[in-house]
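User: Assemble these into one structure.

Assistant: Restating your components, then the assembled model:
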Amino acid sequence: MVMIEVTGLTYYYPLSHTPALKEINLQIEAGQFVAVIGANGAGKSTLCLVLSGLIPTLFNGRMLGNVTINSMNTRNHTPGEFAGRVGLVLQNPTNQISEMRYTVFEEVAFGLENLGVSPSEMPERIEHVLRLTGLIDLRDRSPFTLSGGQRQRLALASMLVLDPPVLVLDEPTAMLDPQGSREVFHIIQTLTTKNTTVVITEHNLEWIAQTADRVIALNKGSIVLDGNPEFVLTSPLLETFGIDYLRYTQAARESQIYGLWPSQTPLPVTLEQSVLGFNRVSSIKKGGG
Amino acid sequence: MTLGLYTAGDSWLHRLFPITKLIFSLSAIAIIFGGPNKWLSAILPGVISILILWSAGIAWRALKLIVQLLTPIAVILFIVHGFFGPANHQILMRLGPFVLGQEGLMYASLIVVRLVSTLASSLLLVTSTHPGSLIQALEQTGLSRKLVYLLGSPLLLLPQMARRIQTIRSAQQSRGLETQGNLLQRIKALFPLVAPLVFSALVDVEERSLALEVRGFSAPTPKTNLTEIPDTTKQQVLRWGMIVIAVCFLVFEFWRKRNGYD
């Protein structure tokens, strides 16, 4: 089942003559885990806003083409109507706290209150996501006393409690330290088992290679590569779009020049593939010697 | 824990329904500026507010804030009205070409007392009420969530702005900006502090509005609340009592002035 369908999408921000997104055609299946990569200014964040239903209604730009999320055309529905159907997590964890509630528990409840969920139903749902995000012991703390990583987990919990079929994450670890990033990645990974459609923009290609079903590379607002992680992340074109190779891929590419990686063996994108490949080369060399 | 001006606590004042405190503050301000005996109307609400704050254990912080905020304003008012007040006749002192007049000093004193009282009665609300609780209480009165957010956003913005100013000041100081020193140095430091503050605030406002939207802030559904802030019949009576008293004072003062008793 197609969850997100984008046809002929071109988008101009107000007062801009250069499109932020250009001729995008895209279909995302329900439950698919899609990573969007690209250099700064490639259009990743704009695509996130489009896929959350916030563009075109909330922005005064010019949009050509159509975007359908869960059978709802974004032109015909307000962002309020998409709430609970699409979740969005942004880079800055502090800006995602409503500040209208006193504790972590109440903060997570805020979205449920907005959607009119019965107060008797709320505690169970909130406790479930607080456990999932490892925040259950912090339930009575003020959101302002949390660390950056904990706040981002709170932002995630605030979205997950709404149980949206689609979750869009715009560089959710960009402002976090390595420990905070690992915690957030761990939670997102659990979504792969829940049949949630996930679209994430992320610079950590190593994690993408291990987690994503599909990778889309953007360059100057256009989709330039689209396929499984092995196909996109080893593409010879990747560097021309300002995206660095993974260290495993780079090592194998360099090794190919010296005959240390067989040209018929696909380039690796994970540590395991890399170890397997180099072991194979080593055993061939030993056998030959 | 403090959040902006709010100081966490469990006093009777903290537990009071936020609207009761809001009505007290508004009634007090109405009496301060529109009450019949201008000195008594200016002093009494302030004294009552400070006594209430004292009973709740947060008077010291409120007084510190009042002194910090009003000292420069008071000094300017005393200088301007004391030396240059148009109603000055009774001369108290001569300082070279300048003359200190009694009428100007009294007028400045009245303004300062009114400001102290206004601030004290406002601090009674904001130092004992979490902005979220005030917003929730306003929602419970039946106001729309958007209107309530608009009314409560200045309270929400204060702590954000304070945090951001601190971050920007640290960042600029690490690049060699002098934020301490004489007046000229401080004025010079203002632009490198204010410009990033304004621009980052605009970016943050956009992100915050997006975050609110995806959490259903404008969803076309009836809203619910996880918890209700308790209100009591006694407090409802008290609120109406305060409104009636304030209106009576204003009407009485209006009648007095109209009939030439002032």
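The radius of gyration of chain A is 21 Å.
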